């Protein structure tokens, strides 16, 4: 028996249809002795009956607030605003360690309640590589949406798809003239997904990575129809694109897809916008580009558009690490240290009762 107790919470965002643990992996956790509770969710892509068949207990949405001491609360995206203090150990993408908007308020909820955030962005190996990530699918969908928008074939509002149906839309929209597309961060998981989506659309991308961004060729960047940014930085980095550059330089660039959506972080490498876009309005015209318009796509839960494929891949990577929570090893300890460092950086001194 593992002695691990986990609640997989309902996601409060209506467009979030992914699950951090899919039914097949839930069954694996239960077989290994994990007490796994799954909250009901009206939009999750996986039926609740599949979790029941896997041996999971069922709870109502939001009941994680009354979970017993020692419970791990697993999710993906933001928590609801209540309760104002958080007492449990939460595992999800908190987006609160790089100076993002409202980061201090979220961390304060943990420190005042004595809870902890095991941010999945910081569940990494010794080299800093994420051990469970949606990057490939985020890149794939972000690049696909950019192509569809450039071709005037993007259906709005967005709706969940499968990879097969998305590829069919890319093929159906293809014409005789193909856009010129640039992927920055092309060698990473996210960049690889973006490049493969472009290839599926019949577009051979220009691929930039670290070497090309160390000495950025701005005229070459602007000489593309589509820019797909897949670089998630963790420290100060010179911006790839600025408002001044868009206004002053000649360019053919007309679509920017920012897959990473680090918009409120001080490390943002695309400081040309200040709010993300949505499923209802996936693109927005930037207002500082002169007479030649540039449209932005910056959706911060792109993989939810392919919920089953993205969830299955992510859950397969996360599940082995969930099985180690009873005696957390270095990956989880790194995540906890990142939490305490972020609290300290925000002048917060919460109780360190959780490993």
Description:
With 355 residues, the chain is α/β, with parallel strands linked by helices. The protein is 32% helix and 12% strand. It has helices at 23-31, 48-53, 103-113, 135-150, 163-173, 189-200, 210-214, 218-222, 243-248, 307-322, 330-345, and strands at residues 5-8, 35-39, 57-59, 72-74, 89-92, 116-119, 181-184, 206-208, 226-229, 255-258, 283-285, 295-297. The strands form two sheets. Strands 3-2-1-4-5-6 form a six-stranded parallel beta sheet, sandwiched between helices. The chain has a six-stranded mixed beta sheet with strand order 8-7-9-10-12-11. It starts with a strand and ends in a 10-residue tail after the last helix. The mean pLDDT is 93.
Brief summary of the model shown:
The chain has 355 residues and is α/β, with parallel strands linked by helices. The protein is built from eleven helices and twelve strands.
List keywords for this structure.
single chain, 355 residues, alpha/beta, six-stranded parallel sheet, 11 helices, globular
- C-alpha end-to-end distance: 20 Å
| β-strand amount | 5-15%
Spell the H/E element sequence. EHEHEEEHEHHEHEHHEHEEEHH
Q: How is the main sheet built?
A: 6 strands, parallel
Approximately how much helix is present in the residues?
A: 25-40%
Please list the strands of the largest sheet in the order they lie side by side.
3-2-1-4-5-6
Q: How many β-strand runs?
A: 12
Topology of this protein?
Elements: E1 5-8, H1 23-31, E2 35-39, H2 48-53, E3 57-59, E4 72-74, E5 89-92, H3 103-113, E6 116-119, H4 135-150, H5 163-173, E7 181-184, H6 189-200, E8 206-208, H7 210-214, H8 218-222, E9 226-229, H9 243-248, E10 255-258, E11 283-285, E12 295-297, H10 307-322, H11 330-345
Parallel strand pairs: 1-2, 1-4, 2-3, 4-5, 5-6, 7-8, 7-9, 9-10, 10-12
Antiparallel strand pairs: 11-12
Helix pairs in contact: 1-10, 4-5, 4-6
